[in-house]
Amino acid sequence: MSDLLSIMNAATLTPASIAVRMVLTLVCSGILGLERTRKRRPAGLRTYMLTSLGSCIVMMTGIFLYNTLGSGTDPARMAAQVISGIGFICAGTIMVTRYYRVRGLTTAAGLWVAASLGIAIGAGFLFCAAIAFVLIYITMVFADRFEQYFASHLRLIHVYVMLERVECISAFAKAVSAMDIRLSDVEPCNQMSEQGAAGIYGTMLLPAGSVQNEVLEQLSGIPGVLYMEIISS
Length: 233
Fold this sequence. Notes:
Elements lengths: L1 H7 L6 H24 L6 H25 L5 H19 L1 E2 L5 E2 L1 H18 L3 H27 L3 E8 L4 H11 L3 E7 L9 E8 L6 H9 L4 E7 L2
Helix pairs in contact: 2-3, 2-5, 2-6, 3-4, 3-5, 4-5, 5-6
């Protein structure tokens, strides 16, 4: 056991430490990627594993160059390029749906932190990497449940509503007011469908003790409403 720990925490690169770091990177990033795959996100198992493994390779390459060429090289410089370059991949996972709902932010953040995890493992900073991996996994799995529970009990929500035509907006506002819901910050959506439907954004303050899903179901039944959903603020 002590021999294994000495290999994993080796300051210098040996065939054994290189293999251990790369395998450990694949295992940690693979577990994180599976959590995204389970939710059918655009970046899943393979993307996380490849991103993190690439970061590990870059970091070990920087250390190798430093050990080979001397103090004239800077291992952190290559790691810095990974952190900035991974942003291009992260940006590709962020998308805006037809109804202007942003998706993929958590996946992008997960990719970025997976790259950082690979850098830490590649540098041999395994104590930090181990703690970071546990915290990242807990955040991705359990914080999501807490966030959903917390969000479902919020009274102030931001909504997107698609109506059959522009004339339905005033009728919708009156129906919402009759349900004791305060509608404010109403803005028209620039995107109109080919059928002439009109979309609006708005902020709603729900009555005390109301349940979001039940309120949305009632609002969706208002004449003229084609589609409605809660969006990020």
